[in-house]
Design brief:
The protein is built from nine helices and eleven strands. By secondary structure, it is an alpha/beta fold. The relative contact order is 0.15.
Length: 339
């Protein structure tokens, strides 16, 4: 029998901030979102202190005591398995090979579950769709390209070692103008993330601005670094700028093309597109480019049913959780596991 006074915390550890959400025994949010500064590069002990602050803020915001928190869901921006970090990513050195779950559970006296941030965001999108009972594939372009897959009933598929759904690092059959495969941050060439991410946007923008066709473009007259130019490219796309539209159209098409292969493998029924593009004014246009790429690669049965041509077999939706999705997902996971 569930304890109706029990609450469950979701803690999303990012490189800059820790976002935190509290839910009750019905998985309904209790109190406001809490946010504290992240100290991941200072080591896990420094981060634990920040997590304690976040838990205190959650309890105060919901008008409960810390002892009412019966479970914690934790996500990290790094590969992990069974509460242990496998790769450093943007974390401090002492995170790797450490039983983060065990240490934080011992510190707080509360059971802890941990996964990576892509899985957490997928769980959050699932939790926010209370009428959806099927599976869900999340693909989220950001600085890199993350993803997660939630099975019917709400269980996240993590793989044998917690390393599944590294969607940004599947190979795609697209090449640069010179015929070369673009280098990816993972050390390989030709990955999807090398085409669809903020990092890819910087590379494509630099290449395009070097062409004579764009010599008079406003971004070529600007002396700011390429990182800032790429960050501002969304504003240009929102105004219909031809260069920005061209680059985002290529990203959308390649993303949709690659999702077709993911769908052929997983058949999720619902594909959710996350990341900052979900909040742009040209997102409908970007989704149409994703649909074009998907249609170019996907078999007809992955688009419509052969029995009912009006039944869509793979639906696409924008993410609805925003920056809080991962924290919501971990609170949901904690409630499911420890409730």
């Amino acid at each position: 029998m569930k304890n109706h006074s029990s609450h469950f915390a979701g803690l999303d550890i990012g490189g800059t901030t820790v976002k935190a959400v509290l839910v009750n025994h019905l998985a309904e949010q209790a109190g406001p979102l809490a946010e504290v500064r992240s100290q991941v590069k200072d080591g896990y002990e420094a981060t634990f202190s920040q997590l304690d602050l976040a838990l205190d803020q959650l309890a105060a915001g919901a008008g409960i005591s810390r002892s009412d928190i019966a479970g914690i869901g934790l996500d990290v921006p790094a590969p992990s398995s069974n509460g242990v970090i496998w790769g450093r990513a943007n974390l401090g050195e002492d995170w790797v090979g450490t039983d983060i779950c065990g240490k934080f559970a011992a510190r707080t006296g509360i059971p802890v579950h941990m996964t990576n941030d892509g899985n957490a965001a997928a769980l959050g999108e699932y939790a926010l769709r209370r009428k959806h009972s099927g599976s869900l594939l999340l693909v989220a372009p950001g600085t890199g390209l993350g993803g997660g897959f939630v099975l019917p009933g709400g269980q996240c598929f993590e793989g044998a070692n917690g390393l599944a759904l590294e969607v940004g690092h599947i190979s795609v059959p697209f090449r640069e103008d010179d015929g070369e495969l673009p280098a990816c941050s993972c050390g390989l060439n030709g990955c999807l993330e090398a085409w669809v991410s903020l990092v890819a946007l910087r590379r494509r923008l630099r290449l395009e601005l070097a062409k004579s066709a764009w010599q008079s473009h406003p971004l070529n007259q600007d002396e700011c670094p390429i990182e800032e130019k790429a960050f501002n490219l969304r504003e240009f796309a929102e105004r219909g700028d031809p260069l920005a539209v061209q680059i985002f159209k290529q990203q959308g098409f390649i993303l949709g093309y690659s999702i077709a292969d993911m769908v052929r493998t997983l058949d999720p029924g619902l594909v959710v597109i996350g990341g900052g593009l979900a909040e742009t004014s040209f997102r409908d246009q970007f989704m149409s480019w994703i649909s074009e790429g998907f249609a170019d690669r996907a078999w007809p049965v992955y688009r419509t049913s052969p029995l009912d041509p009006d039944k869509v077999t793979t639906k696409f939706e924008w993410a609805v959780g925003g920056d809080a999705a991962a924290a919501i997902g971990m609170a949901y996971a904690a409630q499911e596991l420890f409730g």
